[in-house]
Design brief:
four-stranded antiparallel sheet, mainly alpha, 19 helices
Length: 545
């Protein structure tokens, strides 16, 4: 990958940093405007759908007519998915791939196609969220700004990440969450220039949202302050973390399994696949309308969770999960983050109800709802820091910080120990396996993605990738050097301060992580059983090159 690079002194000068802040603000303004318009249109589409189905439910002819409308939506959305295939699904894995230089999507086609597809899916009632498409719209807005200023590929990648932060911030009305999500999930590498520019994008985007849509947060549950103050009650918090970790692993396992089932449908794709959730949406519209769309109707009911019986909570949780799984796994354009937040809320409410059978007071149910949001987010996405900050921004209170941190970290650890892939990491791996030149990735089942910093005097520094004794079943997919993205070849020489992204087969995850750490750290800190030259396999990055 050839790139015109600036000298390091220019790239990191004060004037260059100030310029990045300005350009990041422009990315935030562009991405924020796109997401604000998207949220407005989605709100209109959901309102129109609910009005139409409510009016039609007492007349069989109009019910049949609504199914005819759904059939038309299947045809239109299917045509759009064929027109621009990268708009399928949430859009977050595609934005990941764009940020690491593995995709080069046409931003203009992606933006309008994703916008229209998401609106039509919402009008059809599919259980999909706006956050994934918002991240993609923001990322493509960042790419548009980079094209406008004729930036090179590495700065374009930075702008895509900042646009994703702006999209996430606008979707949740949470700028810090947008920044951390971009760093923790999209870019996966921390740098001062990234955080500075992403923060500029997210703040401007959030300001635009507050001016157009108001200051009201996405969720507005009333907390009981000084929650769970006594040490014995933190046992419940620990149990909550483990519970959310199990639910997170179960969520991902079911999603991935459903995707495999849809993968067995080969005729008239994508029409036959997306016809299933659209048909189901038609049935649910007249039987259980609360389950439709992202989940705002359920959030409204959770404003008074004490009025919901445990049976109702279980029905809403299981129903929302199944409908979301069937909708998303089909490849229909739309995200899962807001449905995930809704399911986290229900999981917290259910946990509190269960504790009620053991004499625990239900007065802290609202607090458990927020713990459920953070725990399920951390268990599914494996971004615990983002989960903690998300709850802080949703509540505007630090009273739950300790409890939320405990739940998030335990959910993260529990889900990892259950050996189920993180949600977006799994989707990204599947996406990379379908791209030209990535055939080797198709052989890797159940892989995790990790990043490592190559340090001075390490075993990897100064060596070509083909000459490094990598652990078995690992694959280097990206090298980052001074902000530039390099597609690794066998002859690529790693330099100190490089950051490498590696796919690791989960069958030997623990040992491979230790070996990779030993390869990249200074030799004085290598463990006694460090990697020897004959302990690894051939280069995971195509040694034949």
């Amino acid at each position: 990958m050839s790139m015109k690079q600036q000298p390091l002194t220019e790239r990191f000068s004060r004037s260059a940093q100030a310029k990045l802040v300005f350009e990041g603000a422009l990315v935030g303004l562009t991405g924020g405007a796109a997401v604000v318009l998207y949220r407005r249109v989605l709100s209109w589409a959901e309102g129109a759908m609910r009005a139409i189905t409510s009016w039609a439910q007492s007349n069989l002819f109009f019910i049949v007519l609504w199914f005819v409308v759904l059939a038309a939506l299947v045809f239109i959305v299917g045509k759009l998915m064929l027109y621009e295939p990268y708009t399928q699904g949430s859009g977050i894995p595609q934005t990941d791939a764009e940020a690491i230089g593995r995709l080069d999507m046409p931003w203009y086609k992606v933006m309008w196609t994703k916008f229209v597809e998401g609106t039509l899916c919402c009008f059809g009632g599919l259980s999909l969220g706006r956050e994934g498409p918002s991240v993609m719209l923001g990322g493509m807005s960042g790419k548009a700004v980079s094209k406008l200023f004729h930036k090179d590929r590495d700065i374009e990648s930075l702008f895509v990440t900042c646009g994703a932060a702006a999209g996430m911030a606008a979707a949740f009305h949470a700028p810090l969450t947008g920044v951390l999500f971009a760093v923790e999930e999209i870019h996966k590498v921390f740098s001062a220039s990234l955080v500075m520019t992403a923060m500029s994008s997210a703040v401007v985007s959030d300001f635009l949202v507050s001016q157009v849509l108001g200051m009201r947060p996405t969720l507005n549950f009333q907390l009981i302050v000084n929650n769970l103050p006594h040490t014995p009650n933190y046992v419940l918090v620990i149990l909550m973390g483990i519970y959310c970790g199990f639910l997170g692993a179960l969520h991902n396992k079911g999603m991935f399994g459903c995707q495999k089932l849809y993968g067995k449908i080969h005729s008239y794709v994508p029409y036959t696949r997306i016809a299933i959730p659209f048909a189901l949406a038609g049935i649910i519209a007249f039987t259980a309308p609360d389950l439709m769309c992202g989940g705002d109707a359920i959030i409204e009911r959770l404003q008074n969770p004490y009025a919901l019986s445990i049976g109702t909570i279980i029905f809403l949780l299981v129903g929302k999960y199944l409908f979301t799984t069937i909708s998303f796994a089909s490849g229909a354009p739309g995200g899962t983050l807001f449905p995930l937040v809704v399911m986290g809320s229900l999981s917290g409410a259910l946990f509190c109800r269960i504790l009620g059978f053991f004499g625990v007071s239900e007065m802290y149910m609202m607090n458990f709802i927020y713990l459920g949001i953070a725990g399920l987010f951390a268990g599914v996405v494996r971004a615990p820091v983002t989960a903690i900050v998300l709850v802080f921004e949703l509540t505007g209170s630090l009273d739950t910080l300790l409890s939320v941190s405990i739940v998030s970290m335990l959910a993260f650890v529990t889900a990892n120990l259950l050996d189920v892939d993180p949600f977006y990491e799994h989707l990204l791996k599947n996406l990379l396996g379908t791209l030209p030149g990535d055939a080797e990735l198709k052989k890797l089942h159940g892989v995790s993605m990790r990043t490592y910093n190559v340090t001075l005097n390490s075993l990897a520094a100064g060596k070509a990738i083909r000459d490094i004794p990598w652990p078995n079943n690992t694959h280097v997919i990206l090298v980052e050097r001074a902000g530039a993205k390099i597609a690794p070849q066998g002859g690529t020489v790693l330099e100190p301060t490089d950051t490498i992204t590696v796919l690791i087969n989960r069958s030997n995850l623990a040992s491979a992580e230790q070996e990779l750490t030993d390869l990249c750290r200074p030799q004085a800190f290598v463990t006694t059983d460090a990697v020897s030259p004959d302990s690894g396999s051939e280069s995971p990055s195509d040694k034949s090159k």
